[in-house]
Amino acid sequence: MTGMTSVGLAITGLTTAVLMMAFFRRKRGPLPAYGWAGLIALIVAECLMLCGFQPVATYFTPVAWTCYILLADAAVFAIRGCSRLQSNPGQFTSVVVLSVPLWLIFEAYNLRLHNWVYTGVPQEWPLAVLGYGWSFATITPGIFETSDLIGSFGWFQASAAIRFSSGTQRTMMLFGALCLITPLTVAQPLAARLFFLVWIGFVFLLDPWNYRHGLPSLMGYLAEGRRDRFYSLLAAGFVCGWLWEFWNYWASAKWHYIFPMFQSWKIFEMPAPGYLGFLPFALECFAMYVTAAWLLRLPTVRAYDLERGSRTEA
Q: Distance between CA 224 and CA 159 in Å, rounded?
């Protein structure tokens, strides 16, 4: 085990410990049965994966994230008495379904930028589709459930409202569009170094658009003085980033980062500076989901507000 891997294990372990302590401090009721099932299945899957047991070792990433999502949702219910899965399963289903095409947008960028590759995925197309599809379907739910859980801890309080002028909104949208276009128009060797623009571009492009159309938005939350939603999503990106890379590192089917920077600074498979990208990625998941749900006219775009205990915008 390398020194950098030990650092990754320490950070992941510390992060998990903080979440557990916060949960036990705030919980008001017992953990629902499906939460215990998720926890037990996750522990069993970890053991089987480390033993190389198939097909668990190959499909470990989606298995682990499915178990985690069940556990996180159950933990939110134990604290709040409500959760996405129990209080609004239709909206939860839409998050799962939209998670796949939303992540495929980033895969499309990667065809041009060549920032990561997958290894160990089954060659038979039905099994490959199962592995990719199942994994991609857990991305947005994982972010949202983690954000709900962190939000239920009460770490972030309401604060002064932050308002954005129409000019600022237009400037942000223009900047977001430039971030998304630039990596596609410059030479590929340079584009491979500019993927961070994609990790922030959709936030700047879509969140002001959502706000201007009266949809759930980070700008809307900030205008209401609800920075808690913003900070909870950022924290969720941090937590999920470490869990993604931790579970990916041990799995048989996994991704490897090949972008031409910081390859000697890897923690698990991710070069250390890359972990910063998970924070804005969580904000992107939120903005992209809201826009996609609105475009598809999904009736479940209004979620259960876990902070206020009432029906409100997601």
A: 9
DSSP 156-192: S---------HHHHHHHHHHHHHHHHHHHHS-HHHHT
**Domains of the chain, residue spans:** 3-311
How large is the average pLDDT for residues 80-102? Answer: 93
Closest to 272 (Cα-Cα) out of 262, 280, 281: 262
**Nearest Cα residue to 119 out of 54, 52, 58, 45:** 58
3-class SS of residue 287: helix
Three-state DSSP at 223 gives: helix
Encode pLDDT of 266-283 as tens digits: 999 999 999 999 999 999
Taking each helix axis as running N to C, give the angle between helix 278-295 and helix 227-250, from 0 to 180 degrees, rounded to the nearest 10: 110
| pTM for the full predicted model | 0.93
Q: What is the pLDDT of residue 33?
A: 98
Query: Once rounded to an integer, what is the mean pLDDT over residues 143-171?
Result: 92
- CB neighbours (10 Å) of residue 48? 16
Q: Give the model confidence (pLDDT) of 111-155 as tens digits.
A: 999 999 999 999 999 999 999 999 999 999 999 999 999 999 999
Q: Any idea which residue has 């939209």 for tokens?
A: 98
The DSSP secondary structure of 34-80, one letter per residue, reads HHHHHHHHHHHHHHHHHTT-TTTTTSHHHHHHHHHHHHHHHHHHHHH
Q: Which long-range contacts (CB under 8 A, 24 or more apart) does 170-175 make?
A: 170/208, 172/204, 172/205, 172/207, 172/208, 173/204, 173/205, 173/208, 173/209, 175/204
